[in-house]
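Title: Prediction job returns without error message
Component: structure pipeline
Severity: low
Priority: P3
Assignee: unassigned

Description:
Job completed but the reporter wants confirmation the result is attached to the right record. Sequence as submitted:
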Amino acid sequence: MITLLVIVGIALLIAIGYMNNVVENNKLQKARTKVELNDRLRRCGEITETFPGQLMTPALKLLLARLELNVCQRMLNLEKSSTALKSRIEELKALIAQGESIPVNNPPAPILTEAKAKDVRFLLEALHGQVTRAAHDGFLPTNEAKSWIREIRHILVLLHIEFFSNLGQHALQQEQPGQARLAFERGVQYLRKQPDPQAYNEQLKFLEKLLARANSMVLTNIAPVEGDVNELTEGLKEVEADADWKKKVIYD
């Protein structure tokens, strides 16, 4: 009898220890999930609010609302009494119900500097991560996620077009045709090496015309000192470099 009681006592201690371990692991997992979801909410909000208006479309705005709604609903499962989450969920549902008529109030933000181009590129990278994660979670169908990855790459091309065009035209206004020529050359080269350059034929012709104009101005003015364009050259190369995340493909 004593032996049996000892065995039962040991079994109870083991069971209690196991249950405590399970509870602690669940608490830790819940805390990790909350941190991850809060980070995704922050990123969705940042993209939604700060993305340049000239690159934001109703379809993209709708996607961001859907992604945020999904994260909010998952957060509500962890914080069932949160009135802020409940209120935001209702707001998002109302926005999503408008479909392609969803309001797009993002103000235009011209890409005039390398720093601004980098900021927008980082937003696109964050958007890529949100779409990829939503596909892995099963929220976005794989085909839809792949379609959005292609759209993100397209927006990245538009970002580069605007940057090179604005940078070159600003140099022309400052009577720096040598730097303008360099910017337009980079833009032309960037478009020509795209997988489907014909898709950007109109923009390519526009940049080629600007390049021809800058070339003409250079020929009729004193040739620029080589060192004058070194800083611009390095900046353009850095912005033009393709990020690794562009090449990712979502697989089922």
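Comment from assignee: result matches the submitted record. Confidence is low (pLDDT under 50) at residues 223-227.
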